[in-house]
């Protein structure tokens, strides 16, 4: 194997495992131990990894409509667990879960693939960011921007990882800056799919939020 690629040892499945562990720590800190900032800091690497993988999934899927459909279904399924865990009520509309952000990102990439001119691409990006702000999805316009970054630099892994790392410094607070650590597992990605447990990762999101809500109540 070429020495330049020898360190790339993580497949898509392993990246997802790292991301969901990080996300679980983040949400555990947010729901159960809000004073334990270190949990939130460890959790910052999850979203960049998920955005990277959503772009990878977009370029490798055989049916983008079904891909969007799955995201849409789980966005709806996850909304009540999300609101219970973070708002304490079954349904409210001030914030929407991260699946909506990822779904907007997929829709944006579909349009970007159909329009190659940069002025049009810029308009599509701005509209997608505006939609995320309008519905108040998790990470809102910054989340859509990160998906765009990984999409634009998809052909150059190191540019994608570097730009994705700088994205974490768009936030004024300190916590999200720890998301720059996501560049380490992303740099180790080998481009392979790994084990197939597709629906586990979709189901984990609403399931762990319900579990955290239940623990917080009892």
Automatic annotation (TrEMBL):
The keyword Transmembrane applies. Keywords: Membrane, Transmembrane, Transmembrane helix. This is Conjugal transfer protein TraX. InterPro entries: TraX. The chain crosses the membrane at residues 37-55, 93-112, 124-153, 199-216. It comes from Candidatus Blautia merdigallinarum.
